Amino acid sequence: MKTMYDVQQLFKRFGIFIYVGNRLWDIELMMIELKQLEEAGLIDKQEYIKAMLVLKREHHLEEDYQEGQ
Predict the structure, then answer these.
(1) Which of 21, 23, 42, 22 is nearest to 33 (CA)?
(2) What is the pLDDT at residue 7?
């Protein structure tokens, strides 16, 4: 799992589609949903860690982008 698209495909396996309208908020909601999937035992720890790292990187990049506007 290397991209935001990969994380979206993970959510798609569970019928989860996230779109709030603000990319930063979308990423934050994905982090919450991902944690719930892991806590429920629907994904393993390794998959959770990889997806969370992608989301954290994207969150950081989006924050930097929004500050630059």
Answers:
(1) 42
(2) 98
Contact 31, 38 (CB under 8 A): no
Q: Can you identify the CATH homologous superfamily of domain 4-67?
A: YqgQ-like (1.10.287.760)
Question: Domain extents for the chain?
Answer: 4-67
Distance between CA 61 and CA 9 in Å, rounded? 20
Q: 43, 63, 60: which is closest to 51 by C-alpha?
A: 43
pLDDT digits (tens, 9 = 90+) for 23-64: 999 999 999 999 999 999 999 999 999 999 999 999 999 999
